UniProtKB/TrEMBL annotation:
Residues 64-150 form the Cytochrome oxidase subunit II copper A binding domain. It is found in: Cell envelope. It holds the Pfam family Cupredoxin_1. Residues 1-20 form the signal peptide. The lineage of its organism: Bacteria, Bacillati, Bacillota, Bacilli, Bacillales. This is Cytochrome oxidase subunit II copper A binding domain-containing protein. Keywords: Copper, Metal-binding, Signal.
Length: 150
């Protein structure tokens, strides 16, 4: 009976430590924004494109848009992103503080690696929620935003 209690306490302690470690510092601090071959990788992304939302947009869409999202505890640097319908959008996630993910469920985007990238075509007009896809601590539920496809 005492052994069962000890095992349960040990399992609970390991679970708590694992959850708390989710928002610990990123082990990739010296990466200099090089592509890590993340989910839906679309090529290389070298440089310092941090916190930008720039691209080549034609008036009717169909251009390309490169966006770098900086994540820190517990917010994204761009809570709102605007693109044109038809744009080819490449998003890079940069974990400036802690370890986070970036997901847009409506476009099947889920980046879980620091400096990982995902590319999709913004073919659905309207507002689409994005959120942190890695449980990162007490403020995790506040890490949300929206991408507006015009």
């Amino acid at each position: 009976m005492k052994i069962n209690k000890l095992l349960m306490i040990a399992a609970l302690a390991v679970t708590v430590m694992g959850t708390a470690a989710g928002c610990g510092s990123s082990s990739d601090k010296n990466n200099n924004n090089a592509n890590t071959g993340a989910t839906n990788n679309a090529g290389t992304n070298a440089g310092t494109n941090a916190g930008t939302n720039a691209g080549n947009n034609a008036a009717g869409g169909g251009g390309s848009k490169a966006i770098t999202i900086k994540a820190k505890n517990f917010e994204f640097d761009q809570p709102e992103i605007r693109v044109k319908q038809g744009d080819k959008v490449t998003i890079t996630l940069n974990n400036a503080e802690g370890f986070h993910g970036f997901a847009i469920p409506d476009y099947n985007v889920d980046i879980k690696e620091n400096n990982g990238t995902a590319t999709f075509t913004a073919d659905k007009a309207g507002e689409h929620e994005f959120h942190c896809s890695v449980v990162c601590g007490a403020g995790h539920s506040k890490m949300v935003g929206k991408i507006i496809v015009e």
